[in-house]
Design goal:
Structural class: mainly alpha
Helix content: over 70%
Largest sheet: none
Radius of gyration: 15 Å
Oligomer: single chain
Number of helices: 5
Distance between the termini: 12 Å
Shape: globular
Order of helices and strands: HHHHH
Strand content: under 5%
Length: 136
């Protein structure tokens, strides 16, 4: 298994775990346990974001394209024709939300970030499929 295959496998696993946490948070939305599951989903979003952008970076490196940050990797992935402008806008918002996760002790902010996670999960699933398609 080469490095890109390993990264995409880890990316898939982290996305599955994020989906699991989102599902649990929705199940427990009206209970006292909701904040625990919401916070778990946010935590899983953090590590899913990290493996996402590192997968993009490695994919682009293999294509001879250098990027050094999540934002530059997203731009380069867009330039290579893999993303729409709307997807780029959402991914840039995702970067902002990721940077704010250290402040999720603020309830309103935690709720705001959590409300975006389902959309982020969908876009990340689409990107994962594109990466996996290039491996085959």
């Amino acid at each position: 298994m080469d490095r890109l295959e390993k990264l995409t496998k880890d990316f898939r696993s982290s996305l599955e775990r994020l989906g699991e946490a989102l599902h649990r948070a929705e199940i427990y939305r009206t209970t006292g346990e909701y904040s625990f599951y919401r916070d778990s989903a946010i935590q899983r979003f953090e590590f899913t974001f990290e493996i996402f952008w590192k997968s993009l970076k490695y994919f682009l490196d293999k294509e001879g394209i250098i990027c050094r940050s999540p934002r530059s990797c997203i731009r380069e992935f867009f330039t290579a024709g893999y993303l729409s402008e709307d997807e780029v806008r959402v991914l840039f918002q995702m970067i902002e939300d990721r940077n704010l996760t250290v402040h999720t002790y603020i309830e309103e902010l935690a709720e705001e970030i959590f409300s975006h996670l389902t959309l982020y999960e969908k876009i990340l699933q689409d990107i994962l499929k594109k990466l996996e398609h290039t491996i085959q």
